[in-house]
Amino acid sequence: xxxxxxxxxxxxxxxxxxxxxxxxxxxxxxxxxxxxxxxxxxxxxxxxxxxxxxxxxxxxxxxxxxxxxxxxxxxxxxxxxxxxxxxxxxxxxxxxxxxxxxxxxxxxxxxxxxxxxxxxxxxxxxxxxxxxxxxxxxxxxxxxxxxxxxxxxxxxxxxxxxxxxxxxxxxxxxxxxxxxxxxxxxxxxxxxxxxxxxxxxxxxxxxxxxxxxxxxxxxxxxxxxxxxx
Amino acid sequence: xxxxxxxxxxxxxxxxxxxxxxxxxxxxxxxxxxxxxxxxxxxxxxxxxxxxxxxxxxxxxxxxxxxxxxxxxxxxxxxxxxxxxxxxxxxxxxxxxxxxxxxxxxxxxxxxxxxxxxxxxxxxxxxxxxxxxxxxxxxxxxxxxxxxxxxxxxxxxxxxxxxxxxxxxxxxxxxxxxxxxxxxxxxxxxxxxxxxxxxxxxxxxxxxxxxxxxxxxxxxxxxxxxxxxxxxxxxxxxxxxxxxxxxxxxxxxxxxxxxxxxxxxxxxxxxxxxxxxxxxxxxxxxxxxxxxxxxxxxxxxxxxxxxxxxxxxxxxxxxxxxxxxxxxxxxxxxxxxxxxxxxxxxxxxxxxxxxxxxxxxxxxxxxxxxxxxxxxxxxxxxxxxxxxxxxxxxxxxxxxxxxxxxxxxxxxxxxxxxxxxxxxxxxxxxxxxxxxxxxxxxxxxxxxxxxxxxxxxxxxxxxxxxxxxxxxxxxxxxxxxxxxxxxxxxxxxxxxxxxxxxxxxxxxxxxxxxxxxxxxxxxxxxxxxxxxxxxxxxxxxxxxxxxxxxxxxxxxxxxxxxxxxxxxxxxxxxxxxxxxxxxxxxxxxxxxxxxxxxxxxxxxxxxxxxxxxxxxxxxxxxxxxxxxxxxxxxxxxxxxxxxxxxxxxxxxxxxxxxxxxxxxxxxxxxxxxxxxxxxxxxxxxxxxxxxxxxxxxxxxxxxxxxxxxxxxxxxxxxxxxxxxxxxxxxxxxxxxxxxxxxx
Lengths: 229, 743
What we know:
Mean pLDDT of chain B: 94
Mean pLDDT of chain A: 96
Radius of gyration of chain B: 26 Å
Helix content of chain B: 25-40%
Low-confidence stretches of chain A: none
Number of helices of chain A: 5
Strand content of chain B: 15-25%
Oligomer: heterodimer
Strand content of chain A: 15-25%
Low-confidence stretches of chain B: 1-9
């Protein structure tokens, strides 16, 4: 299996994603510089977290127009699995691979903490290592994570089962209190129609090592590796 | 200043008023003229004024700083470079420093704090290290002061936005609220980096004819005279100084970090220095002076953000995210390729010379020609008069009134601004990026794994200004000892410290006395604990309209955990574990938080620090941790034993059945006294014998204080205090205050 992690200027979770992915794959992924128009043949493409181009415009807006993204969009449409984490999710919405937008958190503040998520479906290449409706604990760390989409888009997402994760209580209830950023319907991550593109605000790569007080994130990487191997 | 205005000024010569505006005394100006052998040009006056400012020259503090211990087998680089370096074994080293950004943060909290973080990270990566963790120590005024909320909000988001964008976790620190900081807040930022011990970069530009290269952001008019501002007191007009505050761009700094580390893989850099305070001036002067060479700068080559800047403005600009480096001859293309890849400015702006002078050219004119020796070594040094603070009386435990209820007092204290949870602050800092944060904020020390190894780096920032104000010497000792204790409490071997000395106006003998006392106390503790100072910073003139801050020598310590599997946290882990206090108990309530909150305010002498007991107790605790005999450890510091137990209970979400304290000492003195050199450990009951035996050998007293279990703190003759109520009190205050509720 070959995986690529795209590095934009200002990416800062590229190494973290590579470490978690590398642990699951047993070898290091390729790090691909944003300015490269060539993207090596890859079974999986990861857009990591960070502040691409400083996010001085809308988060992810500049990165969505960098040379390598044209190729990422083409591959995604051809079926290559793409995972966007945090800033990577923002880039995916800006690039039009996923619908909706990530706005400033309802609190207007950056938030870094562990949250509970409900795994909405377990039949995708990203989540087959989890149980249906399993409650997992992943960290979030963002200022622009409030997911929003218009009513029509939202009903399509919900109707087609394209919500990947929802913020919830430790007990699994979907409540306003467990929603850290004001996202509509407590949405923490979504799929594209073909289910090969996943964008999510929480960071699975940050709890993928027993030393770091949790391993719920590791199963996402092993799910992908087992599917794509 | 326009060229025309400058020309007319120079035609009139340098007036006494202009000299005063530059923060130089008449005597200092005479020294300057003597060193130069003539009257300076305006640009030269500007250069001297920043180099001889308190901020850059340490003219009031240097003779005292020299008395601090700075060596040890673990020290690779002590004070004098951009940051200190300690050995971690296996070819790795930690690079760290703490620095103040107090004056700018009060004037413009967001940018002031952000650029403080940017500056300290630059200091660390200038030495070739990748920053791996940030800490900060913040002091704000009273919650009731009208500006406090605004300052907290701006400082925290400034620190967060800069560190978060850089992708360096901010893993801890401390925050105080005290009316004595109402008009002078303190923002001290610390950064720790990792480097290969044989690839450390320094700032001595040895060699003549070498290219001087400017990289990073362009130069603008921001921050001109920041160093001079940071060396003066505030008055009503200070807020007009906003233009002297720099503006941060963390994205550019992230690129600069990656570009510098990439270039450092090549063997091309002779010397490197970040442009921090006094920008181009201090970076060029320091590199040339340390290398024993001269330097010529052609300002026409400097990348500019604005048009029409004069040489004076360019030499004094504190535009952020810039570096100056001296390269090996012929290495320019390699460096240029890397900096262009990262879309950063790159310009050759001069070369080293054999003249021994700093020569600045601009528009075909020589704007400055100064012997470096005059700038760097003729700088004034003062042995300022000082008076020691008279000792305070020691307050007997019996004279401090007991509370109606011990647990009621605890709930009240845990919800006070002094002890309330700082979660609202640290949740705005990305404390997990880089994937190595082993202990998150809220514990005794932050811990990150040394990437790719099983070692851990522990770090903590400490000082108790209340103690320092009452007794600067004992307070200085206590700050170092508490830092050492916090590192010990997570299982680390304390290695070394950085200090950030925040004081008032040193020209007042009582303030200078505070500084001298704190240094003496620190030196004593550093020596006794083998915990040397490897870097630091001095911030004086923290006063407004003649009212100074309490002496605040903030200590940032770094320790090494040989195997993170052996580290412990303060969280209680299992019901049935026993809680033991290790260390001498004297019921010392003078200057305690109990007095501050529950009585009429803290007074008297602070607790004294017995450094021999400190060492014995800490070494005992560390060995118990390494032997796996304890399941949780916490030091007892501000608030005393009961507060420490409550913090352990909240962290582990487990209750504690507390033991009745022994007679004849009043119970509130034992529970809330702030005696030093004490730790609370939790252990399985079957470990009790071994712990008692080890403690007896180390001559450390042990007492059972409770048993873990339930969902409340319980004590005979008192209503139980539920964890839920305790948590509500502890977590509630800061979010409520920041949301605008009356405090």
